Structures are given as C-alpha cells and as structure tokens.
Amino acid sequence: MEQLIARLDGFAAAIAGFMERLGIESKKRRLERLEAQAGEPEFWSNPESAQKVMQEISKLRAEVERWGSLHARILDALELAGMGDSSLLEELTQETDMLAGEVERMSLQAMLAGPYDNENAILAIHAGAGGTEAQDWAQMLERMYLRFAERNGYKVEYIHRMEGEEAGIKSMSISIKGDMAYGYLQSETGVHRLVRISPFDASARRHTSFAKVELWPDIQGEIEIDVPEKDVKVETYRSSGAGGQNVQKNETAVRLTHLPTGIVVTCQNERSLTQNRERAMQILKSRLLEMERLRREKELALLKGENVDAGWGNQIRSYVLHPYQMVKDHRTGYEVGNPNAVLDGDLNGFMEAYLRYKISGRTLSADPEPDILGETEPEPQG
Questions:
Q1: CA-CA to 19 of 20 to 30 Å: which in 170, 221, 268, 270?
Q2: Is residue 288 assigned to a domain?
Q3: pTM assigned to the model
Q4: CATH number for the domain including 296?
Q5: What would the pLDDT profile of 99-145 be if each residue is shown by its tens digit?
C-alpha cells in the first residue's frame, strides 16, 4: 500500500504543478464570470459577440473539468489508500495503473502551451507530381484526417476542394474545430509518402506518391496584421460542392493571392461572395501569422545550429503498403505495422511521439534515413 501511496502522491504533485503552470484556477474564475455574463438578459442582443463568448465558455469548461476531474480522481484514490484496507489493494492497483496513463496523456497536453495550440486548425492537402496516382493519395490522406476528426470528436468544415480529373483530389482545405486541434495536428505538417502497388497500373508495379500537408491556426476574432488592398489579387469563380456538384449558380467562390508572398487562399464554403471573401481574408491573415512564426523559429534554429531544411523532398512520414506494411515517422522514429489503422484515422500515437520529440529535441530512433526502402531511384509516378 505504501508504494501505491507514493505513486499517487507523485501523480498529485505532477498534476497540481501542471494546473498551476496552465493557470487552471484563473481560467476557472474567468469561466465563472463568462457564465454569469451569458445568463444576463441582454446577452444575445449581439449574436456575433455572444457566439464568441459561448465558444470560449465551451473551451474553458472542457479544460477546467478535464484537469479538475483527474485531480479529484487522484485525491480520492489517495484517500482510500490512506485507509490501509488491504481488501482494496487490487482495486486501487488497477486504478493507479489507469491513472498513470491519464497523467502521462495529460502531461503531454500540458506541453501544448503555445499561443495558438488551443485554437482550431486549418489543414490543407496538395497532391504531388504524378497525376492520378498522387491525387488518389491526397484523397486517402483527406479521408484519414476526416476519420481522425470523427474519432476525436472534432467538427470539420470544408473551405475548398478541387477534384482530380480521373480520381482523387488536387487540393483541399478544411477547418478542424475542437480542443487543442492545432496543437495536436502540428505533427502532420510536411510531405507524406506512400509506397504501394498502384491500382491504376495495369502492370501492377510499385509506385511512390507524395502529398504535402499544411497547417495553420484558425484564429477566431480580429488578427492584427495589416494587409494592404494593393497586395492582394482577388478572383471570383463558381463554387462547387465536395462531390463536384455546383452549389451556387453565381460566382460566389473567392481566390485571394497575396502578391508579396505568393500565398493563395480559396474559399467556397460560405453562401455569399462577401462571406467567402471575409473568410478567405481571415485565413490569409492566419497564414501570414503562421509564416512569421515559422520564420522566427528558423532564425532561432539557425542560431542554435539546427537543421531547418523543410523542403518538398524531405518527407516527414512514409506509409508502406508493399513489399511490407509499416508507417514510420522519420522525425521521431515512431512506427506501426498496421497502415490500415493509421489510414483509418489512428494518429494519436504519432502525435504524442511528436510532442515528446518537440519537448526533448531528439528522435526515438537512431536511424535518420528517410528512405526506409533503401531506394536510390524514384518509383514510377503513374
């Protein structure tokens, strides 16, 4: 029993430290103030402002309850262990083991303390070279992230989707809304590589395909970045639905090109041209904010002497379906032998490994070689 008590004391101290670091008590007080505000008669007189308050309430309540519940479970277990009743030993041992997993998971969440980690996320996928083969791979990734969102209770809204000529997609972007969406999905930014027997190749040859995933925070509210009108080229076109069907007869979709950086943002999900333009401008500002953050990180990395090359050819993860089955993240060394589960949205292990990698600054594997098949020449692209 003494060993259990020592473990539980350690858990309690760790969780209390994380709660202090994250300011859970101050967030609890803010939650109480906002809930009182939401109960006032005039609260919904400004629906837009009220909606933002309700969104903040939802996020704060989820965070406060999550940490408070875990802390309470640990204290309850400690109280039972302190009674010294040996008949409770087996039950308390099981509870302590379960609490260990929860503390580990929550300790990772505590590391998501960046300024935008708790924001919603905008995720974009772009097919690489290779026509139908690459576009099919991009659509497989699209499904993977939709399944991930479904598994984790996130809401998804399409912003833009461009289908391929024969199969798959050329590009797409979605908003993923939920607790710590941006913080967790940061692990997905980069080039994803697929190795398989192509279903489009009559000779049944092995093909290698690439797709690029981008991510930036979907910041709600005003973003304090000045974007002069002269720096933005605005184009309009007819919206189409995710299945290719026209959803508007008029030109309501918007494409913004930021001339100084070349960033292109398209939006076709809203009902009107004005709404699509406003949403596209919000996304453009988010992307510019993320670009500035990455620039500062690279400058700091250069000062530290770290490798900051993140070019198109440097894939972050390989999904091998033939000649064997494995998914491996080349930054962390984390790998699994069940690609089907990963492609069905089971990404949490990769995301947690990436968080540990960011915290420790080192990989789990000593093998830095990204080409896990040992290939010297690229496979046919279709």
A1: 221
A2: yes
A3: 0.68
A4: 3.30.70.1660
A5: 998 888 788 777 776 778 888 999 999 999 878 999 999 999 999 99
